[in-house]
Amino acid sequence: MGDSSESLRRPPQKLLLDSELTTDQQLMQVSKSDNEDNNNGEKSKEESTYWAIIEEIFGKEDEVLYRPKKRKYRSLDSLYRATKPVPAV
Question: Annotated region Disordered: where (predicted)?
Fold first, then answer.
């Protein structure tokens, strides 16, 4: 009976999926290499490794589609063509 009451008191352990575990491990390796590289002064090498892993996990940024910027105002030329001159008084 002592074993069953002990198991009831323990909080449930969180299970990680294999993909989450490998992602966590990769990010930990990157941060570890980041600390080592900063000490050695090899920041550019570390950054390229970091971004390569980020691209591997999330995909390339080229896949994001950007919507063209909407114009807020008309050009002066289009205003002059669309309106009639006002007679001077």
Answer: 1-24
List, in order, residues 6 or more apart from 50 with CB less than 8 Å away: 30, 34
H or E element, residue 74: none
Query: Over the range 49-87, which residues count as b (16 or more CB within 10 Å of their CB) and which as e?
Result: bbeebeeeeeeeeeeeeeeeeeeeeeeeeeeeeeeeeee
What is the residue type of 68? P
- CB proximity list for 23: less than 8 A, separation 6 or greater: 57
Stated as kind and residue range, the H or E segment containing 21 is: helix 18-40
30 close to 7: Cβ distance less than 8 angstroms: no
Q: How confident is the model at residue 55 (pLDDT cuts 50, 70, 90)?
A: confident
Structure tokens at 49: 């490794």
